[in-house]
Specification:
By secondary structure, the protein is α/β, with parallel strands linked by helices. Helices cover 33% and strands 29% of the residues. It has one domain: 3-Layer(aba) Sandwich (Rossmann fold), CATH 3.40.50.2020. It contains 6 helices and 9 strands. The structure holds 1-O-pyrophosphono-5-O-phosphono-alpha-D-ribofuranose and adenine (ADE).
């Protein structure tokens, strides 16, 4: 990745204090989406880390994955499949679901993808903004496999996971959380 993009990502990122006895700072990624040069460079930078694996589709979870995933899909010249988090209005067609382990907020989310959008033989690149426990990415890998497709790895802007999780999920990232 170009050092320009690293520098821009670090400069446009904020840790915010929500106050009201909230116990920790929260990440504010809005500066990344507001920057034309970051928005322009992100897709090619993330796609470039996995181009050799020849993905045929990008899968990413709501809600921030719906920003980052299509940028990567455009750069790879492949399509995009959205993964929904359960608990809101049902999607009115057959879905493949997986329950995630507790994530970075302690939630056990159900993640679901429209089954017809992942095909046997697809090589699916999972894309997300940030990987901490890896729970959501792992659940997406299970869905991809259940649909007969192959997960080729996880491309993230920020990795905050252990080396074991990074190896298991084949996480490649532009930044480590310690840089922010
Ligand atoms: O590695 P994990 O512990 O699974 O955490 C990573 C996930 O958490 C965030 O989503 P979150 O639902 O918190 O926020 P968002 O809906 O704003 O994307 C992030 O976008 C990843 O999807
Ligand atoms: N957006 C995010 N996703 C996952 N883990 C985080 N830790 C801090 N911000 C995060």
């Amino acid at each position: 990745m170009s050092s320009d993009l690293t520098t821009e990502l670090i400069g446009a990122f904020r840790w915010n204090d929500p106050g009201q006895n909230f116990p920790h700072l929260v990440s504010d990624l809005s500066g990344w989406w507001r920057s034309p040069s970051i928005l322009h460079a992100l897709g090619p930078a993330l796609a470039g880390m996995f181009a050799a694996e020849k993905p045929t589709v990008v899968v990413a979870p709501e809600v921030t994955g719906f920003i980052v995933g299509p940028l990567v899909a455009i750069a790879l010249e492949v399509g995009f499949v959205e993964a929904y988090k359960g608990g809101h209005s049902p999607v009115a067609e057959p879905m493949t679901w997986a329950q995630a382990a507790p994530d970075h907020k302690g939630r056990r989310l159900s993640l679901g993808v429209r089954t017809r959008q992942l095909r046997p033989g697809d090589r699916a690149l999972i894309v997300d903004d940030w990987i901490t426990t890896g729970a959501q990415s792992r659940a997406l890998g299970e869905i991809v496999t259940a649909c007969g497709a192959v997960p080729v790895g996880t491309a993230a802007i920020v990795a905050e996971c252990t080396p074991d999780v990074a190896a298991e999920l084949r996480v490649r990232s532009l930044l480590r959380a310690e840089q922010l």
